[in-house]
Amino acid sequence: MDQQFSRYVNVSALKNLFNVSNSYVINKLLIILLPWRHKPWARKQASFGSSETVQYLPPREDVNSPDAYIPTMGVVTYVLLSVLLAGLRGAFDPALLSSVLTWAFLMIGLEIMILNLAKYFLSINSVSSLLDLISYAGYKFVGINVTILLAEIYNRGGGTGGWFGWAVFLYTYNANAFFLLRSLRYVLLPQDSGAPGVAYGPGVSSRSLKQSRTYALAGYAYLAQFFFMYILSNNV
């Protein structure tokens, strides 16, 4: 079974994404929720002498590195929070665990599909892996959980609506969008950020491609994230 799993998932890369420390988790959560003054955003590269393969430091050693621990805990918290609120409303059903988890995975899957389509059509070939993109997609659950928890407390179980719920949602949404805009710049705009990436193809204007990539990044960070965060926040 382990061999079959290794055929589809880079186990070494997956383990690396869980290589976190307590200080990393705390600092990363602060960056996700308060990203406005964080600098720099570039990931640190590991030094392996004359090796031409670009490798980055693990999360434990670089706060700008994506990790799988926070997104995983974010999804688990989202599921448990949804079930808890359903129980408090007298609508608990054991099937909620699987349905909420499935819904969360569907949203992440759709988001990853959009990202990969953008990378394909914009000729982006960065060193960031699929697991990295899944991690970035999962960071939104930090803001979603904060929105649900604070809104439910303020509204006394009345849901995430009202002015307070919207205020918290808009803040966490903007924080997440800004975080992704800065972090994914090194994925979708590799040349402009100084990170290694694919060269512009023949017959392709570097200026027009740069502009298209910038629009795609902004659209993903702000338009797509609003859709996904709104849907997930109101699905409890």
TrEMBL record:
Keywords: Endoplasmic reticulum, Golgi apparatus, Membrane, Protein transport, Transmembrane, Transmembrane helix, Transport. Signal peptide: none annotated. The keyword Endoplasmic reticulum applies. It is found in: Endoplasmic reticulum membrane; Golgi apparatus membrane. It is a multi-pass membrane protein. The chain crosses the membrane at residues 68-88, 100-118, 130-151, 163-181, 215-233. It comes from the Eukaryota. One of its GO terms (biological process) is endoplasmic reticulum to Golgi vesicle-mediated transport. The keyword Nucleotide-binding does not apply. InterPro entries: Yif1_fam (IPR005578). GO terms for cellular component: COPII-coated ER to Golgi transport vesicle; endoplasmic reticulum membrane; endoplasmic reticulum-Golgi intermediate compartment; Golgi membrane. Belongs to the YIF1 family. Has a role in transport between endoplasmic reticulum and Golgi. PANTHER family: YIP1 INTERACTING FACTOR HOMOLOG YIF1 PROTEIN (PTHR14083), YIP1D-INTERACTING FACTOR 1, ISOFORM C (PTHR14083:SF0). This is Protein YIF1. It comes from Verruconis gallopava.
